[in-house]
Amino acid sequence: MGQKTVLIVEDDGILAIHLRNMLVGLGYGVSEPVATGEAAIAAVAAERPDLVLMDIQLAGMMDGITAAGSIHSATDVPIVFLTGYSQGPLLQRARTAAPYGYLIKPVSRHELAATIETALNTRSTVSSGEARIGITPFIG
């Protein structure tokens, strides 16, 4: 398998650079970070990353939850949310987008590594299960 790629969706440029540096240090390929939900949808369609690291509150008309819902309905790319909030209605709403994980800012290298590895492994397990289900003949 090749290097896994991550798309960072974060409107704080300094944080996006920090996340990019951590991800590169962990051995991931990193697409050019984007700052809006609309740009995230376009980038996922064009680049097909292995994972999207998405801030919930973004610049622009579309927040990260709405963008994640659009991405989820069109692809099977796992999404991990970044947020400055650990509870409340925003996180309740975020659950509807079926994320593979949450990271509370500020994010440590260890938390980032563990969450991304878990999300990618979960996606791999789900894909394997779907493939097995798809080739299992129906006997009725």
Write the layout of secondary structure elements.
Blueprint: E1 5-9, H1 13-25, E2 29-30, H2 37-47, E3 51-55, H3 64-74, E4 79-83, H4 89-94, E5 101-104, H5 109-135
Helix pairs in contact: 2-3
Estimate percent helicity. 40-55%
Radius of gyration: 15 Å
Looking at the overall shape, the CATH architecture is 3-Layer(aba) Sandwich
Number of helices: 5
Overall tally of domains: 1
Output the helix-strand order: EHEHEHEHEH
Note the main attributes of this structure.
globular, five-stranded parallel β-sheet, alpha/beta, 140 residues, 5 helices, Rossmann fold, disordered C terminus, single chain
Your description of this structure?
The chain has 140 residues and is α/β, with parallel strands linked by helices. The chain has one domain (5-135): Rossmann fold. Helices cover 49% and strands 15% of the residues. It has helices spanning 13-25, 37-47, 64-74, 89-94, 109-135, and strands at residues 5-9, 29-30, 51-55, 79-83, 101-104. It has a five-stranded parallel β-sheet with strand order 2-1-3-4-5, with helices on both faces. α2 packs parallel to α3. The longest helix has 27 residues, at 109-135.
Outline of this structure?
With 140 residues, the protein is α/β, with parallel strands linked by helices. It has five helices and five strands, in the order βαβαβαβαβα.
